Amino acid sequence: RLDDPERIECVRSYGLLNPHPAPDPFLNELCKSAAAVVGPNALAIMNALGDEVAIRIAEHVPPQMDPAAAPPICTPRGTQACNYVVYKRSPVVLPSAELAAGTQGFMQFYTGIPMTCPTTGHALGSFCVVDTEAHPDFTEEAVNRLQMLCTTAMHHIELRKFDEAFHVFQI
To answer: I need a surface site. Which of 46, 80, 92, 125 has the fewest CB within 10 A?
Structure first.
């Protein structure tokens, strides 16, 4: 599967393609806030998209959902909706059951925001919120709130990258 090599290198430069990412409590809290924008049953996930795989870097699994039902940390990209978010480079909202067959079956609502590198403009992945209930009246204001949370996540990821570079430079 071909992909833009510059985008893939950008994702790698942030260290986001580790198949065993260390938990990041701040990003998980942002996922929890994003899920709250949609509803109490919503699942929120941040995915980094490599050439062939999507790596989950943060998540919020609602309390009533079996954690084993959440997508695995590393999954083949296939026909995931997050691919479309990355290539489109703008928010995607699928408010009801019009979701593609390959999207974990239980989803009745999907929204994804591209996680955009502030220096290159490449989409590194997607900040997705899914729900078992349709949301046909999902508002532009709600999309804007998710975009603000995604921007905050990218600032945190950017600072984490600079912090790691600083520590390497000090040694």
So the answer is: 92
Coil, helix or strand at residue 74: strand
pLDDT digits (tens, 9 = 90+) for 115-132: 999 889 999 999 999 998
Are residues 135 and 42 in contact, defined by beta-carbon separation less than 8 angstroms? no
Question: What distance in Å separates the CA atoms of residue 69 and residue 135, rounded to the nearest whole number?
Answer: 21
Q: Distance (Å, rounded) from C-alpha 77 to C-alpha 83?
A: 7
DSSP state of 148: H
- pLDDT tens digits, one per residue of 65-97: 776 766 667 677 766 778 888 888 899 998 875
DSSP assignment, residue 119?
Answer: T
